[in-house]
Design a protein that fits this description.
Elements: H1 6-10, H2 22-31, E1 35-44, E2 47-53, H3 55-61, H4 65-68, H5 81-89, E3 99-106, E4 112-123, E5 129-138, H6 140-186, H7 191-217, E6 226-228, H8 230-245, E7 249-254, E8 262-264, H9 266-283, E9 288-299, E10 313-322, H10 329-333, H11 352-362, E11 366-372, E12 376-384, E13 409-413, H12 417-429, E14 433-437, H13 440-450, E15 456-459, H14 467-478, E16 483-486, E17 503-505, H15 512-524
Parallel strand pairs: 7-9, 13-14, 13-15, 15-16, 16-17
Antiparallel strand pairs: 1-2, 1-5, 3-4, 4-5, 6-8, 9-10, 10-12, 11-12
């Protein structure tokens, strides 16, 4: 093999890659997924003069290249403050020092997108800025997800607040309804006074239903779903719905005879009606009218071509329509979002239709809205048909207190002093020996101090802490025959270590008659 001479090796040079051509650089800019434009460095009243745009910017903004090149970039920005920031930055801008920002970008069709942008100076060989390169990235979806997360967090906070308020209301309502029952037994021979006490009790029952809705909103109350007929719901609430409309318009109902039944929570369906009628009332103009219709409907297979279409099956339709101001397409797209409202500040929370949507979804149904500006809006709810007969709940009357003639020892744990006094009083008058405590820690001390075996524990069990369960377990070890009456939330799980016949739940607000019966049934089990 022939070797190369040293002189020949010295004369060989390493070739350097050539600089990218202007054509290659332009192609690279056109290939960018972000929108890009190049502009001169001089800022006019309407922005920088655009010299070049890539296809991504055209696709993003909806402008063609011919409509952007030669014009000032200010047509892209909704906020004038964006140009003011650029004006403050530009005199001192140097290559490598970019200006970032984000905001709404206008499109020629009147819509807008949310974008993040960067402005970068381009210098010549002497470092003087000659051009500005701007890049835009569409962050509309990212911003929508961020807003949805914020709305979700706000909704969770409101739900927690609603649950806390409902808990306090339940204590007050328990006292009101309880003393109504006590008074009713004492004034049985005075019909006029008895009627007045019954009116107080009816108001308390309505308040109890309202707190159940607050607890449902805070996800602390399970749905009390049962088979109902929507015609009954509309008829039972027609008077209050007309009262809600007032002088704003008249209420018209068209209820289909022979309407099928659905499975839903009647209290929540009442709330759905109230919210839809209130929204319709706020949109009414002169000669306003709100119409409520019910109908049977069957959707045949093959009619649901899109994923968003209602699946085939038999449904019951509830429609609430008005001849009010109507809504545009953009408003309809956000209608069921929590905290979205078109009402003036202080006149709407943006929660009404979100609650309607949640109730319909929980009931296995579907809701749609059709609206035209200056024509009106129609909300249509479809709930699955069920073949079982409807269960009508009679209007609650003021029940008489039963005489159960108890004689056992009861431990009552209740933090609210007024509720504790009332419950202890009615149990004592019925023959029980009652030991009271405000919290589980105090309860054991009181039991040891009294020295009496406890047959029944009444305590507010809930899912947030297990102090009452620890108390019950300790007492059960000492006395295996212990009975437990839980007065906490409705969805409190059963005590797995205790015989199911020896425990029951009675969520607040409860009637004293129910408390006495539940206590006697447990002790006799």
């Amino acid at each position: 093999m022939k070797k190369k001479s040293p002189a020949r090796r010295a004369t060989k040079r390493v070739s350097r890659p050539s600089a990218p051509s202007a054509t290659l650089l332009a192609a690279a800019l056109r290939a960018q997924s972000d929108g890009v434009f190049i502009a001169g460095r001089h800022l006019g009243k309407r922005g920088l003069k655009i010299l070049f745009v890539n296809p991504s910017l055209c696709a993003m903004t909806g402008y063609s290249a011919s409509r952007l090149i030669g014009r000032c970039h200010g047509i892209l920005h909704v906020e004038k403050s964006d140009l003011a920031r650029l004006a403050r930055w530009l005199p001192t801008a140097r290559p490598g020092q970019s200006l970032g920002g984000e905001g709404y970008v206008a499109r020629p069709d009147g819509t807008a997108l949310y974008a993040a942008w960067n402005f970068d100076p381009v210098g010549d060989a002497h470092g003087r800025v000659t051009h500005i390169v701007a890049s835009y990235r569409d962050t509309t979806e990212k911003r929508r997800l961020q807003e949805a997360l914020v709305h979700s967090q706000r909704l969770d906070a409101v739900g927690r607040l609603a649950g806390g308020v409902a808990h306090d209301f339940n204590n007050l309502i328990s006292v009101i309804n309880g003393y109504c029952q006590i008074l009713a037994g004492q004034i049985a021979d005075n019909p006029q006074a008895l009627r007045e006490v019954e009116e107080i009790h009816k108001a308390g029952q309505k308040a109890a239903a309202l707190t159940r809705q607050l607890l449902a909103f805070g996800r602390r109350q399970p749905m009390n779903a049962r088979v109902i007929n929507l015609n009954h719901v509309v008829r039972d609430n027609r008077e209050i719905l007309q009262r809600l409309l007032g002088n704003a318009g008249r209420l018209v109902t068209e209820l289909e005879p022979g309407l099928g039944n659905v499975r839903a929570d009647p209290a929540q369906m009442q709330q759905v009606l109230l919210n839809l009628v209130i929204n319709a009332r706020d949109a009414l103009r002169e000669e306003g009218r709100v119409m409520i219709r019910t109908a049977n409907r069957e959707i045949a297979p093959g009619l649901n071509r899109r994923l968003s279409d209602t699946p085939p099956g038999r449904y019951i339709v509830l429609t609430v329509s008005d001849n009010g101001t109507g809504m545009d397409t953009d408003t309809q797209a956000h209608l069921f979002e929590p905290f979205f409202t078109t009402k003036d500040e202080g006149k709407g929370t943006g929660l009404g239709l979100a609650l309607v949507y949640g109730v319909v979804q929980q009931s296995g149904g579907f809701i749609t809205v059709h609206s035209t500006l200056l024509v009106g809006s129609t909300f249509e709810i479809l709930l699955p048909l069920v073949r079982e007969p409807a269960v009508r709940t009679p209007t609650p009357s003021l029940p008489a207190l039963p005489a159960t003639r108890g004689h056992e020892t009861v431990l009552l744990v209740e933090e609210d002093a007024v509720v504790s006094k009332m419950v202890a009083g009615i149990l004592t008058s019925d023959g029980y020996r009652v030991i009271t405590a405000t919290h589980p820690g105090q309860a054991l001390k009181e039991v040891h101090r009294e020295g009496q075996p406890v047959q029944l524990l009444i305590a507010p069990f809930n899912n947030l802490d297990n102090e009452c369960e620890k108390l019950a377990r300790a007492m059960h070890v000492a006395r295996p025959g212990l009975r437990v009456l839980k007065t906490g939330t409705a969805d409190s799980p059963p005590l797995v270590w205790l015989d199911s016949r020896h425990q029951t739940g009675l969520p607040k607000p409860f009637a004293l008659s129910e408390l006495l019966k539940a206590a006697r049934n447990l002790l006799d089990a």
